[in-house]
Amino acid sequence: MQTHVKVLGWLFIVFSFFYVLLAFGSSMILGMLAAFVGSQGGEDAAIGASVLGFTGAAAFIFWLCLGIPGLLAGYGLLTLQPWARILAIILSAIRLINFPFGTALGIYGLWVLFNKETEAMFNGAMGQ
Question: Virtual CA dihedral for 30, 22, 75, 115, nearest 10 degrees?
Fold first, then answer.
């Protein structure tokens, strides 16, 4: 079961890394659009640039908030931290609604993390 926990940890890291990339990419694109619109001059351009800038900042925060917990859970699973099992269970349950890949990761995560062997590993009953 230890191999499944390691695989799950790496899957959390990879999936979450895409969220972090999306955070930086979306804010960069919206920031460039805001600069382009703002350079056109006029009152409407200033309003449009402000809206695009705010949207870019909000998108950055949103995607980063989705990515960072998964990175933490992945690291914690790889190092067999007890808190990581709880965090990964919560994230696996949430990811069930993200069809199809999140659903697959959620099902796999719940299967691995609710296994008695895995529970014993994180409680320190088995050797690490």
Answer: 140
